[in-house]
Amino acid sequence: MAGHGAQQHPHGADRLCEAGDRVYSRAVRRGRVPRGDADPVPCLLELALLHPDPDDMDFLVPTAPQEVMTRLLRGMYDEVSESHRRVGSAVAAFERYAGLGGPVRVPAAGAEGAAIRVLDGLARIQAAMDEATQVCTTEVLTVQPGGIRREHELSEGLPRALALRARGVRMRDLYTHVARHGQGLLNYMELMGEAVEARTLDEVIDRLILFDRTVAFIPANADHTMALELRHPALVEYLVTVFERQWRLAIPLSAALPDTGIEGISHREQSIAALLADGHQDAVIAERLGISVRTCRAHIARLSETLGAASRTQLGVRIAQAGLDGPPRAVGAAVVRVPGARGPGSPTAR
């Protein structure tokens, strides 16, 4: 199923892709279909339109169309109700504000010293970042999600980093564990020397850059073409606290990741298992860990093989039995064996 996830099938049960419609229709007519028929259309499993036949795991049975329709209508009703509630709340609030009277002072969009400033467009973001870099004197804290850092991203930020190092500014960077596999990051760290310290976590918060604990930059939209420049002391201090807490939990880039202590399970697969246990979809897990959906599903397949699970439902049970349904942690030198799991020869990727 690798490579055919949510990115290739961005739809809901009410607007199936052509291939998904054919397979689901066939399942409804025949009562079940071979599991292999669903390989090109994982959307049917992700949308719970097909599920394993408890009598024969090599087949998938359809969710009744009536049940699917009930689910869709309930979701639409909830969305409409929520929209009505939000509109009503907004109208009531603005009517109340309008009744207060008196002039309202609106600061100019480019006013200097504004506690919160919206930066619209990459050029404005870059200019604000350059300005903050020029006046920074002591410390820069950054959080860089998204997995392996691309070469052009590191090259773009290198002039600012070198300018900071020349002035004796210390830098601390947080990345996901996946970033350890990028040669560009390792080259960058070697070039910067002791001026930069980096640590990694399974997953980090969204992008964050803090200068001298007085100004912070965070994304303002999903594609990062807008940002917020924050200078309000309480907001900046809050973000510093968030950073420091993640920093204490993170592992230095120079240190190896801890062994899981569970035979055949890598650190990354332990993280994936915990997120699966929380009910997250493959695409969400991939985004949070900074890996592709294809890679995520390959790890899930290895988890299933190692734990001896024949279905996603059984995999959930095996994950709980192995104690993998909590945060990743090292469990010492002892090797944990799971009922039904494969032997030491099971393949795994670290």
TrEMBL record:
Top-level lineage group: Bacteria
Domain HTH luxR-type positions: 258-323
Organism, scientific name: Streptomyces andamanensis
InterPro entries assigned: Sig_transdc_resp-reg_C-effctor, TrmB-like, Tscrpt_reg_LuxR_C, WH-like_DNA-bd_sf
Pfam family, one: GerE
Lineage: Bacteria, Bacillati, Actinomycetota, Actinomycetes, Kitasatosporales
This protein's name: LuxR C-terminal-related transcriptional regulator
